[in-house]
Design a protein that fits this description.
Layout: E1 12-14, E2 20-22, E3 38-41, E4 44-47, E5 83-88, E6 92-97, E7 103-108, H1 112-120, H2 130-135, E8 171-172, H3 175-182, H4 187-203, E9 209-213, E10 220-230, E11 236-246, E12 249-259, E13 265-267
Parallel strand pairs: 8-13
Antiparallel strand pairs: 1-2, 3-4, 5-6, 6-7, 9-10, 10-11, 11-12, 12-13
Length: 269
């Protein structure tokens, strides 16, 4: 049984000199200014939540006083029909679909990318993905390379904001983490399994479970998303677990995945 070991991430803030309270990044009552730029912790300050393209901006951050009306003076592009710019803090902006709250474009004018690299070593692209590296010339029955799963990442400038408004919600699985998730799976198996990763990470539903099956060899698996949380840098993360059944043998893996600044999910451990 393969198990991906992970280090515990901090999930709480200090609300007093001696009493620690759970940190709820969407609870405005924690911040008298109703903005999350920094949060005081025992070890210093933490950044508040940092949303990416494809995330849903919570309704409490889509109030009338959050609407950006001077977008032209700020150098932002004209919002298309059905979209509005919203301001978060004094220098971060989101182009949001008014009907759904989904973020189509982000403009951060802080050190968001630098803080990601400090926490997770580097930004990952589709070229780091094990499926792209090993299976791009093989049959792809679930459409991983032509769809949004990895195809949506192809040609994207990862680590920078996409000014076209395209939502990047793909999945990158590579390195040791990729080997733990996809070990003993052939390329067709991985194609089906990647669909569950994509659906699971982007569902936003804690405990959601997805199943896949390769009809050519009857290999199958279950992928489950655990608890969503914001890490100490404010990035959206979740736990996950996977069970794969291959010819009577069971293979399992667990770990964490986080959403990079460009909106793509990457398995971090």
């Amino acid at each position: 049984m393969t198990r991906v070991l992970s280090a515990a991430l901090a999930l709480s803030l200090l609300s007093g000199a001696a009493v620690a309270q759970p940190y709820d990044p969407y609870n405005r009552s924690n911040d008298p200014q109703n903005r999350y730029q920094y949060q005081r912790t025992p070890g210093g300050y933490q950044y508040g939540p940092r949303w990416s393209r494809g995330d849903r901006l919570p309704s409490q951050y889509r109030q009338n006083d959050d609407i950006v009306r001077d977008w032209r003076q700020l150098g932002l592009r004209s919002p298309p029909r059905g979209y509005r710019w919203y301001r978060y803090d004094s220098h971060n902006y989101f182009l949001v679909a008014t009907s759904s709250g989904l973020i189509a474009e982000t403009v951060y004018r802080d050190d968001r990318d630098q803080r990601w690299n400090q926490r997770y070593t580097r930004t990952y692209t589709y070229q780091d993905d094990s499926y792209y590296q090993q299976c791009r010339d093989k049959p792809d029955p679930a459409g991983v390379l032509i769809g949004a799963i990895i195809g949506g990442l192809l040609g994207q400038s990862v680590g920078g904001d996409n000014r076209t408004g395209t939502t990047v919600t793909g999945v990158i699985v590579g390195g040791a983490m990729g080997a733990a998730l996809t070990g003993n799976l052939d390329c067709e198996d991985r194609s089906y399994a990647y669909r569950t990763y994509y659906d699971g990470f982007n569902s936003g539903r804690q405990g959601s479970r997805y199943q896949w099956r390769n009809p050519s060899n009857d290999h199958r698996g279950t992928f489950q998303v655990g608890q969503y949380y914001n890490d100490a840098g404010g990035f959206r993360c979740t736990t996950y677990s996977q069970t794969v059944y291959i010819q009577g043998r069971t293979q399992q893996a667990r770990g964490h995945a986080c959403r990079q600044p460009d909106g793509s999910w990457t398995v971090v451990d």
